[in-house]
């Protein structure tokens, strides 16, 4: 049985004012009475796809994973696949029982873990997914969304409250739980300067006391949060409304450096009427790390850089599309070439 792959769309950051205005102007905004804030886990984008014959495949951000070695973290993928394969089928059965038109589900989440200092029962010889936030010594899967396909080819997302009811019944206990529920304005104001809640909530681990005083205001600081309405809300272009709010340590933009003395930066800034210095804010190592988390650590560098460039331009375009479109094509090509140059440098630094 073939499985239809549906890529999980990039989530827009909370600081894009134009995006927030579009949300407030959307036709269903007034119906979204409550907004839900959940922790954003620092891991690899990962999903289970279950089709109507109850066969299961797993996927990364961009494709179905056929070779675990090529994705990277082979042990993590094997461990999580084995743990949740039957539970994914059970979840499909539960959803299909409620709606017999359902022909496929995709369970989206984060592949994470592999290290926690006070928990020694995991696999110390394996490489953790990431070290910036510590969750658990074993690898695990954190569910944050479920999408369904129907017989007529259409699809739908399950709301948070439906997930909160159905996931535990299928054996998925590690999933996005509310840190806050309230108005749109209050959800956006949620203070993300918090230690990760994952270790204590799901694994009963004691809190960590050590922190990097230069970068972390609290120990084991969370990556950030995801903000969604309690109903499925879409913009006029069809995009689903999901917002992320990250801690400064994990932000994918930097402050503008208009005083760069590198010749290429000076020339591009002049040719773009200063727009290059704004675009360069989006060209960061954190963004490349995020790209790797989406594509897997064994993705080839050309694919990583291409995805990195697309991500830079996509986010930059949220607020600057009109200005960018007015730059002549040749200059835009030069700017993109410079973005790719930085991308290759970041990839090689990470090796």
Overview of this protein structure:
This protein folds into two domains: 239 residues, DNA ligase/mRNA capping enzyme (D-amino Acid Aminotransferase, Chain A, domain 1), CATH 3.30.470.30; 88 residues. A five-stranded mixed β-sheet has the order 1-10-9-2-8. Strands 4-3-5-6-7 form a five-stranded antiparallel β-sheet, sandwiched between helices. A hairpin with a 4-residue loop joins β6 and β7. It starts with 11 loop residues before the first strand and ends with a helix. Helix content is 38%, strand content 18%. With 351 residues, the chain is α+β, with helices and mostly antiparallel strands.
* Low-pLDDT residue spans: none
Please, how many domains? 2
- H-E string: EHEEEHHEEEHEHHEEHHHHH
Q: What fraction, in percent, of the residue positions are helical?
A: 25-40%
User: Which structural class is indicated by helix and strand composition?
Assistant: alpha+beta
Principal-axis shape: globular
Number of E-state strands:
10
CATH architecture of the largest domain: 2-Layer Sandwich
The CATH superfamily of the largest domain appears as DNA ligase/mRNA capping enzyme
- For the largest beta sheet, what order do the strands appear in spatially? 1-10-9-2-8
Could you tell me the CATH topology label of the largest domain. Answer: D-amino Acid Aminotransferase, Chain A, domain 1
Return Rg in Å.
21 Å
């Amino acid at each position: 049985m073939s499985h239809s792959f549906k890529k999980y769309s990039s989530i827009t950051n909370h600081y894009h004012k134009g995006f927030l205005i579009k949300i407030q102007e959307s036709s269903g905004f007034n119906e979204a009475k409550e907004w839900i804030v959940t922790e954003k886990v620092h891991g690899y984008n990962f999903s289970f796809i279950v089709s109507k014959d109850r066969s299961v495949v797993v996927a990364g951000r961009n494709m179905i994973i056929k070779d675990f070695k090529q994705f990277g973290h082979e042990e993590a993928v094997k461990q999580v696949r084995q743990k949740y394969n039957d539970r994914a089928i059970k979840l499909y059965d539960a959803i299909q029982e409620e709606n017999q038109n359902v022909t496929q589900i995709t369970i989206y989440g984060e592949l994470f873990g592999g290290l926690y200092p006070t928990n020694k029962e995991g696999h110390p010889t394996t490489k953790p997914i990431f070290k910036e936030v510590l969750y658990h010594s074993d690898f695990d899967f954190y569910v944050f969304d479920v999408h369904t396909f129907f017989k007529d080819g259409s699809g739908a997302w399950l709301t948070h409250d439906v997930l909160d009811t159905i996931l535990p019944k299928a054996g998925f206990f590690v999933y996005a739980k509310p840190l806050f529920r309230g108005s749109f304005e209050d959800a956006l104001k949620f203070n993300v300067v918090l230690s990760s809640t994952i270790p204590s909530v799901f694994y009963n681990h004691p809190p960590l006391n050590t922190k990097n005083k230069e970068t972390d205001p609290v120990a084991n600081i969370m990556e950030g949060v995801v903000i969604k309405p309690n109903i499925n809300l879409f913009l006029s272009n069809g995009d689903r409304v999901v917002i992320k709010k990250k801690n400064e340590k994990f932000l994918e933009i930097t402050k503008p450096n208009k005083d760069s003395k590198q010749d290429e930066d000076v020339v591009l800034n002049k040719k773009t009427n200063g727009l290059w210095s704004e675009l360069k804010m989006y060209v960061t190592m954190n963004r490349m790390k995020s790209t790797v988390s989406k594509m897997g650590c064994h993705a080839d560098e050309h694919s990583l850089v291409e995805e990195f460039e697309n991500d830079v331009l996509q986010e930059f375009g949220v607020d600057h599309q009109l200005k960018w479109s007015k730059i002549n094509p040749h200059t835009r090509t030069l700017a993109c070439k410079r973005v790719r140059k930085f991308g290759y440098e970041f990839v090689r630094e990470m090796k």
